[in-house]
Amino acid sequence: MHTTRMTKTAIVLLFLAAGYLPAQQVSSLLPGVDGWSAAEPPQTYVPETLFEYINGAAENFLSYNFIELAVGRYRGAGGKAEMTVEIYDMGAPDHAFGIYGSERYPESRFLPFGVQGYIEDEVLNFFSGRYYVKLMVYEAGDRTSESLKAFASAVAKGIAEPGTFPLPVRAFAPAGRVANSEKFILRDFLGLAFLTRGYVATYRTAESGEFDAFVIETPLPEQAAKTLAAIAGHFAKGAGLDPASGEIIRLKDPYLENILAVKEGRYVVGAVKVTDGAMETAEKTIRGTAKALSGK
User: Fold this and answer.
1) How many other C-beta atoms can be found within 10 angstroms of the C-beta atom of residue 210?
2) I need a surface site. Which of 22, 107, 112, 145 has the fewest CB within 10 A?
3) Which CATH code for domain 19-158?
């Protein structure tokens, strides 16, 4: 009975920490914009039918627990311009960030729609709350950017709780971090089936080269301790490391190179692909990130 209560408590805490929010009806978020009219009734898709709409791209959305998609198609008044609005309900803000982060690039042109958005040619994408929004306009000519921004603004205004970046993203130490390189991997983090809910950011300095810092989120501190022990056991093959010491443990892997990791509360903080010359920089990054997560 104690185990059952603990499991339920852990699930509730994780849901709250991830910012799970009540859903709005997705199709109700499809906007009305002056100068544009609906070209057809809205269409909706669920996990079982998503392949019918985006085919090969569906698997990526499903890997982040996609719930529902609403699609609206619009036609500009007196012209050939067409707009497609896709609103994906991902179930939780971290899932929405995950799919958004998997499609953006650090060099994208970013805009302040929702939590963050970016525009490229005839496309504008952003995430807000539990939703990932993708806009595509055709034949809009010199009004392409203006039209995309008008629709983005209208959709964003309809989302009741836009939220912000997940805490681990905000906690990554700033020094050397490649802006907008952060990602969230829900499953099989670092290619390991036993690791879930991993955040990663790229770091680059002239002196130390490039490595990836990470934060693995768990429901409770004791789960973080088990996760760190599992990482040590996998890479060190029972070499007698003590993950409970509070010190950063050092591991080796042919692909991930030097691996550093430490527990901080309900998080495991670390770095991979660290060269020998970047060990000191990586440790500073880990300590700075852990401090931000602790709130101290």
Assistant:
1) 14
2) 22
3) 3.40.1000.70
Cα–Cα distance measured from residue 296 to residue 286, given in angstroms and rounded to the nearest whole number: 15
75, two tokens: 């036609």
Summarize pLDDT for 43-90 with one digit per residue, the tens: 999 999 999 999 889 999 999 999 999 999 999 987 799 999 999 999
Residue-by-residue DSSP string for 190-223: GG-TT--SEEEEEEEETTTEEEEEEEEE-SSHHH
pLDDT tens digits for range 134-190: 999 999 999 999 999 999 999 999 999 999 999 999 999 999 999 999 999 999 999
The reported pLDDT for the residue numbered 207 is 83
Q: CATH topology of 19-158 equal to that of 167-294? A: yes
Q: Tokens 């890479």 map to which residue?
A: 235
Given the DSSP bridges, would you call strands 249-253 and 257-264 parallel, antiparallel or unpaired?
Answer: antiparallel
Q: Domain locations in the chain?
A: 19-158, 167-294
- Do residues 65 and 186 lie in contact, with contact meaning Cβ atoms separated by under 8 Å? yes
Euclidean distance between CA atoms 283 and 49, whole angstroms: 46
pTM: 0.89
Residue 213 phi, psi (nearest 5): -95, 150
Angle at 188 between CA 6 and CA 265, to 5 degrees: 45
